[in-house]
C-alpha cells in the first residue's frame, strides 16, 4: 500500500522514463510531478513542496549532485527524502551522492517495483520520526527537535540535517553509551544497500561527525569501537520546547 496524499517530484531528461514512472507511481496512489531539467525542478519544488524527490544524475542544464546540494542547503526542503538515479556503474558517483545527503541510490536500468519499494521505505522512515511529538533531545552542546528535525548548538547555530543524518542521530540518541554494530546502523539508516554496508555506515557516521563538530582525533562524541562499531559517548535528556 502507498501512503495516500504523498507527493513525488521527479526530474529526468528522458521523456520515456518520466512518463513510465509518472504513470506507474500515480496508479499506486502517489501524486507525481515530472519535469525534464534542474531549472524546472527548482521552480516546481518552490511552488509546491514534495514529500520525496527523485533526481537523475545526468541532466541537460545541471547535474543531480548540484540539485541534491541545493535541496540539503535549503531550510524549507532539507529533510525531504532524496533518491538519485544513474546510468553510471561508477561507485564514485554513488559515494558523492550519499555524501551530499541523498537517502538512496538506484542504478539504471531498474525495475519500477524496486523503485516503489525504496520510496515506501523512505516515506515510512520519515513518518516514523514524527511520532515523538513535542520532544527535544539534549546532549552535550546540542538540542535536537524531534518534530522539526532542527538541530541547534548552544551558541545558537542551526545545523541542517538530511533525512539520513537525522535517522542516524536519532538512533544514537535512542541508545546512548551503547555500542551499535554496523548492521544495526545500516538497517536503521538505509533503504537498500548500494555498496558494501561497511562503507555506507562509515560514510554516514563521518558525515554526522562533521555536522556535530566532532572532528577531534580521535572523535570524542561518536567514538569508534574497533571491531565492534560506534558509540555515542554522551548523556541524553528529554526536554520540552521547540529546539531553540
From TrEMBL:
Location of the protein in the cell: Cytoplasm
Signal sequence extent: none
Lineage top rank: taxon: Bacteria
Phosphoprotein as UniProt keyword: yes
GO molecular function: phosphorelay response regulator activity; transcription cis-regulatory region binding
Listed name of the protein: Transcriptional regulatory protein OmpR
Record-level GO BP terms: regulation of DNA-templated transcription
SMART domains linked: REC (SM00448), Trans_reg_C (SM00862)
Keyword DNA-binding listed: yes
Organism: Ectopseudomonas oleovorans
Classification via InterPro entries: CheY-like_superfamily, OmpR/PhoB-type_DNA-bd, Sig_transdc_resp-reg_C-effctor, Sig_transdc_resp-reg_receiver, WalR-like, WH-like_DNA-bd_sf
CC per GO annotation: cytosol; protein-DNA complex
Keywords: Cytoplasm, DNA-binding, Phosphoprotein, Transcription, Transcription regulation, Two-component regulatory system
